[in-house]
Amino acid sequence: MSLATGIGSMPGTDFAESFRIVLGEVGGLPYVPELPARGVHAGMIGRSLSVLEGIEADLQPDGWRLGTSEGADLRRARSLLAQDLDSAEELAAGHAGSIKIQVAGPLTVAAMVERPRGDKMLADHGARREIAESLAEGLRTHVLDVRRRFDNAELVVQIDEPSIVAVMTGGIPTASGFGRHRSVQPPEADELLRMITSSITDAGARPVVHSCAPDVPVALLAGAGFTAISFDLGLAKPEDAWAEAFESGVDLWVGAVPSLDARVNDADLAGRIGTFFGQLGFDGETYADRLVVTPTCGMAGASPAWARKALATAQSVAARLDA
């Protein structure tokens, strides 16, 4: 049976209301939403830094920077995460299906967070590894905490890597803006990502990766141990790498519903998904049980009404693909 879920972020500042919408519209695979409108502490990077183990951070005018002690901003991020999990635990008491949490991956964190002495963590090989090790260790603790709260549910951990393509192609600008950081080569990227998938798997959860960038490195992600790849259908080309990943056992989570307000038709969206898989050589019976329909990306910039409708549409499209 095809399922539906969201990517992560939702509009607004009321976590309980957002989570009720998630439970109501995509209850087969609900997720603990992020609400960036509450501030950077509740956004993707702030939330990710809050689970790091052995590394502290603080907020500077140019963004998050790693430091030597916990700053007030990181305490705020950790407090918000704990509050959200408390609320989710109460609202989803007894939930017995899957439930998803999200955290930014090591390549994206390295591209968006500064070193203590300036410039991005991406600039330093040792710093990149330190981030991955800290995130891997922190995720073990985080996953165990979430599993304790939802002890009847199968936990899915989505690693968000929106910057992975830019990191691997030398597309991240330096602090001066006049240059670009050197690209991270596939062997190193594989090593860093494997640290994360191993920690998630060891903690008893399922590792999934999401990237809404074009030219997603499918073979790299499949080889790094992710059990599913979540992607933007509008940016994906039906190339052999997708078919090879799917045949190897990696599920495909298809971002078909616009993440911002738009007019959509369920039948058209279902048809686009069917066409994509057909071009890969797979029919509906092959992929129906391994498919998750999602919005194309996070919905922090959407209207509240659209966020609800987008999730409902994803669920409706998934149902059509099962028909």
Give the tags:
323 residues; alpha/beta; TIM Barrel; seven-stranded parallel β-sheet; two-stranded antiparallel sheet; 12 helices; 9 strands; 15% strand; globular
Walkthrough of the structure:
The protein is of the alpha/beta class. The protein has a single domain, classed as Alpha-Beta Barrel (TIM Barrel). Helix content is 44%, strand content 15%. The protein is built from twelve helices and nine strands. Strands 1-9-8-7-6-5-4 form a seven-stranded parallel beta sheet. A two-stranded antiparallel ribbon has the order 2-3. β6, α8 and β7 form a beta-alpha-beta unit. α5 (125-149) packs parallel to α7. The longest helix is centred in the middle third of the chain and has 25 residues, at 125-149. It is globular and about 55 Å long. The N and C termini lie close together (10 Å). The relative contact order is 0.15. The model has no long low-confidence stretch (mean pLDDT 93).
